[in-house]
């Protein structure tokens, strides 16, 4: 299955909402690869995921430390590859080791290590649109993510309700 789903993100709240929804789908061992220009909403999306998995935790941008780790069951590993000079530096981050056990892994600027990421993953690309808002392109990779896509897990009506948690 080679599918790309697209949706508009009109506000920061919608980006957070999608993140919360995707966070509710995550299982230990899952990887999410985020790409997009500076300020396109990658870290905001990660904030939504973290709000779903560890309410009250605040995302710290890992741009300078490269990797932040949050909570347990699941542990959330958040990497930012913006400052990598080459894909060879990716191996030194030890993400595969951090991903063992109950962890889920979210990688910003994933295009800088695309060949080193697991083949089974969810690829998310955020793009600016002319005018307000952004577009998100969702590319499920592997059986689990493709199955979720076929079931409509990424349809806007499924995650838009996450704007109002508890409803």
UniProtKB/TrEMBL annotation:
One of its GO terms (biological process) is tRNA threonylcarbamoyladenosine modification. Pfam families: TsaE (PF02367). It is found in: Cytoplasm. SUPFAM superfamilies: P-loop containing nucleoside triphosphate hydrolases. Gene3D superfamilies: P-loop containing nucleotide triphosphate hydrolases. One of its GO terms (cellular component) is cytoplasm. GO terms for molecular function: ATP binding; metal ion binding; transferase activity. Keywords: ATP-binding, Cytoplasm, Magnesium, Metal-binding, Nucleotide-binding, Transferase, tRNA processing. PANTHER family: TRNA THREONYLCARBAMOYLADENOSINE BIOSYNTHESIS PROTEIN TSAE. Belongs to the TsaE family. This is tRNA threonylcarbamoyladenosine biosynthesis protein TsaE. It comes from Eiseniibacteriota bacterium.
